[in-house]
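Researcher: Here's my situation. A collaborator sent me these components and asked whether they could plausibly form a single complex. I don't have experimental data yet, so a predicted model of the whole assembly would be a useful starting point for our discussion.
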Amino acid sequence: VNEHTITAFDADLRNLTRMISEQGGVAEKMVADSTEALSRRDPGLACRVLSMDATIDLLQREIEDAAIVVIAKRQPVASDLREVIGAIRVANDLERIGDLANNNAKRVIALGGVVPVARMTGLDAMSLLALSRLKSVLTAFVQRDVAAAIVVWRSDGEIDALHNSLFRELITYMMEDPRSIGASAHLLFCAKNLERIGDHATNIAETVHYVVTGNILTEERPKLDTTSVMPAEG
Amino acid sequence: VNEHTITAFDADLRNLTRMISEQGGVAEKMVADSTEALSRRDPGLACRVLSMDATIDLLQREIEDAAIVVIAKRQPVASDLREVIGAIRVANDLERIGDLANNNAKRVIALGGVVPVARMTGLDAMSLLALSRLKSVLTAFVQRDVAAAIVVWRSDGEIDALHNSLFRELITYMMEDPRSIGASAHLLFCAKNLERIGDHATNIAETVHYVVTGNILTEERPKLDTTSVMPAEG
């Protein structure tokens, strides 16, 4: 492998990382704006989130296409190959984060003005935490910072704990006030979507670890979301 | 490109298709068994579904790894490259189908014996439809049959229609009988998971079209799920 090839590959990698930063910026904006739209009951803002979905999907396809071209053209091996595979995986997680934010924005439009303010505290907290984990893990990815990625990976339990408590709270609220059931069901799905956004940040942390070290994070994943196994008796 | 290279590439492709058939078989079994576990209220069967999740995840990684090796080693272009990218995409959709079936199995365990039988009809119907679309689209993939893939793609609306009606039914039921809210909330998520399994079958149909023709299905995607935009006053 000559000097010229190394330089060209490095330029390819920088280009992939730049595209992922751009896509990550769109993902962060979609998460932040969909939650703000829910807090403020702002269907106009929710519509602007919906309009970003095509952009994040397009970026994912462009990153995947560019990565495939790099693999075919440069035939990278070992850590170089992991870098390119890492880009494909992160782009996929970011696209799914966009989908989840998009689904929450749709629910804002469905909810109109009927969100009970008291129920929003837990969702705001989940959203802030999801967003902060997303920002940290994207920085860890750009800087190939394994230690920072592990910090994000370990913090997955916090958002799950918020989700569990919000899930119980919403179920109780539905029981107390059956007229709230339609709205609360939407909020159950919003909370689940935020919890899944947190999972994708965890996936990205695992990808950073894999890209840099070549190893899979083997420690048991810190999965504390128990809402799908909560007894139905509430 | 000499004869030997073509043959080796064809063998690689056959190997990828074989792995996807295997993974598809696991996905079908997870979907069928998780629904049967829900119908029969059989937590033992649900546990067996959970145990299949590691298998489907491993198969996805193996397919992705094998596909990357093929791209690096053979440098395929045009339709050959699309074949390999298609394998990566289908493996990803099947892994996500496994996750969704796995989540439904967890909910069976959470529900114990409290599923109201009347509510199961809609879920059984959704599951049968999702399973039938999954089988058809996997056959279409193995046979590279675009016409069959388009039939699956066009049928996406049926499962969404079932989901919409079940969603409304469950919300009404929750309002009528607040004691059912915990169980019904789990069933809302089970229904949503089946609807998303249907979406992944649609994705696979789009991948078959892309692999064979090189074009993206441009017609507006037949998206009829309106539960996330249903007015909350419902």
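Model: Some features of this prediction you could bring to your collaborator: The mean pLDDT of chain B is 89. Chain B touches chain A through 39 residues (CB under 8 Å).
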